[in-house]
């Protein structure tokens, strides 16, 4: 990952506010009402007494309301590179026992070999500078019969659509394609004998273009987009709506490895 890209990622995730803005657009306008986070968690096979590590836990929102699942873990470690994210996660999950919060870099996990029954890394592998090293570390700390869960995006979703709309304004797609639904299986297969891809069917049906404009402006890597006046963003979005609704494709899914 280039230095400028790394700085953009650090800025984007330094605090929880911009992440909340991006999450809110999905909560408000997704056509699949199950919710991506709930769908991901529904595929976790966590049995009583398991040790679980999540890398890049963000705000911890996916664990809210999942006390029964958390209680099955003999230890649940929620980790992130951002202190701000960990503070938010700890605040959201206050009062729930057997959770440990730690700053951990996937490229150098400070845990013993084969110490976890499950490792989770959702929507973050495409940010890892040395992904091969990161996956090697996951394989090292995961038990031989353990499971690795990792969600990611595809190459034909929201960003590709929005950059297509704003291409005439010089906006190009800066989205990292280092780990996507299209190329993730090949990379994971180097470290895991069994890799299964699952796709989440969804889209956005946006009725207020101002919300989508705020979402776009929360993306640290979209420097070209942020040069445009907010009014211009809203106008372009309105022009592309049909009957007051802007239909935005989404492409998300996950891999389950063992």
Brief characterization of the structure:
This protein has 258 residues and is an alpha/beta fold.
What are the salient characteristics of this protein?
Rossmann fold, alpha/beta, 258 residues, 11 helices, single chain, two-stranded antiparallel ribbon
Notes on the structure:
The protein is an alpha/beta fold and 258 residues long. It has helices spanning 3-12, 17-29, 36-41, 67-72, 83-92, 131-141, 158-165, 184-188, 209-217, 223-226, 230-239; strands spanning 50-55, 73-80, 99-103, 116-120, 142-153, 195-200, 203-206, 246-249, 252-257. It has one domain: Rossmann fold (3-Layer(aba) Sandwich), CATH 3.40.50. It has eleven helices and nine strands. Strand 1 (50-55), helix 4 (67-72) and strand 2 (73-80) form a beta-alpha-beta unit. The chain is globular and about 55 Å long.
Topology:
Elements lengths: L2 H10 L4 H13 L6 H6 L8 E6 L11 H6 E8 L2 H10 L6 E5 L12 E5 L10 H11 E12 L4 H8 L18 H5 L6 E6 L2 E4 L2 H9 L5 H4 L3 H10 L6 E4 L2 E6 L1
Parallel strand pairs: 1-2, 1-4, 2-3, 4-5
Antiparallel strand pairs: 5-9, 6-9, 7-8
């Amino acid at each position: 990952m280039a230095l400028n890209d790394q700085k953009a990622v650090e800025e984007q995730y330094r605090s929880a506010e911009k992440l909340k803005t991006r999450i809110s657009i999905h909560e408000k306008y997704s056509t699949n009402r199950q919710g991506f986070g709930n769908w991901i968690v529904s595929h976790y096979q966590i049995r009583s007494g398991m040790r679980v590590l999540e890398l890049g836990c963000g705000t911890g929102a996916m664990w809210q309301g999942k006390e029964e699942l958390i209680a099955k873990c003999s230890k649940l470690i929620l980790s992130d590179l951002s202190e701000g994210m960990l503070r938010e996660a700890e605040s959201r999950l206050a009062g729930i026992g057997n959770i440990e919060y730690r700053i951990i870099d996937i490229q150098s996990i400070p845990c013993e070999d084969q110490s976890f029954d499950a490792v989770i890394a959702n929507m973050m592998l495409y940010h890892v500078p040395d992904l091969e090293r990161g996956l090697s570390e996951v394989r090292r700390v995961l038990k031989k019969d353990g499971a690795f869960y990792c969600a990611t995006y595809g190459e034909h979703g929201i960003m590709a659509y929005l950059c297509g709309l704003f291409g005439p304004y010089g906006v190009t797609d800066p989205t990292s394609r280092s780990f996507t639904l299209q190329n993730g299986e090949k990379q994971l297969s180097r470290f895991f004998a069994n890799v299964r891809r699952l796709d989440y069917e969804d889209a956005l049906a946006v009725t207020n273009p101002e919300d989508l404009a705020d979402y776009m402006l929360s993306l640290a890597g979209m420097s070209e987009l942020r040069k445009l006046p907010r009014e211009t963003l809203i106008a372009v979005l309105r022009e592309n709506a049909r009957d007051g609704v802007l239909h935005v494709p989404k492409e998300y899914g996950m891999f389950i490895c063992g």
